[in-house]
Design a protein that fits this description.
Helix 2 packs antiparallel against helix 3, helix 2 runs parallel beside helix 4 and helix 4 packs parallel to helix 13. The protein has a single domain, classed as Triphosphoribosyl-dephospho-CoA protein. It is mostly helical and about 280 residues long. Helix content is about 70%, strand content about 0%. The protein starts with a helix and ends in an 8-residue tail after the last helix.
Amino acid sequence: KTKDFYYYNLDKIIEESILAELNLDPKFGLVTPNSSGSHPDMNYDLMIRAKNAIKPKIIEIFFESLERKYDKSLMESLRNIGKSAETDMFRSTSGINCYKGLIFNLGIVISAYAFKISRFSSDDIFKISKKVAQDLLEDYNFDSSSFGDKAYNEFGIFGARGEALSGFRNVQNGIKLLGNFNAKTLLELLVYYIIHIEDTTLLKRAKDINFYNSVKNKFSELDLNSTEQIKILNDFCIRNNLSFGGSADLLIVSVFLKKIGNLGINILLDNNILKI
């Protein structure tokens, strides 16, 4: 049963990918099993509830993309599933945003994965992700009241949308650092993203473009072999109410991509192999 194969594996991989990030500790103001970091309104259990709420909808995006014709009505349907995932998340967390950015990023990537395997595409998943992002955002209306749009208008920082529209250019580079899934490697990749991506979560909390850039410089100088330096920087981030939601989302996306790569897209092309 091909559908059961995908459902079981994707459910497992999404679960493992989110937990790989969530279980890292310390994590520079992000929520961990031992700390709410810079998020007094969040804790580990809340993140688990949010994860459980969004997972079925992300898998629904995969099957919708796998089974339907690629056209405007599909894009509309994917947007609606994404909004429904947000609604389910907010319901499970009493209105706290834990994974809105992840729904967007992982939704695009899992949709691209479905298009790749259902259409036997030779394009890589990043190229397909770029097209999906362009088509999903085609009718996007800038909202001057949203922080993300303000960040773009004032500083040219395009955040998650810019990363997706580039075909996840930073993930294309970052994923090469992910030789395994141990804590040190995951922390290295998180720091790589903190340094390199445009993170509107950080900008919103830094409140100032110069402080935003100086925080990134601190991470550039961090020695990840020094637990003392990691602790000092972690305390600094919490003291200054800093967090890196955009970077955390891309860490999850990277683990997800690495794990579906390990599933082996080539064997998935022959449906006979999937009769399990």
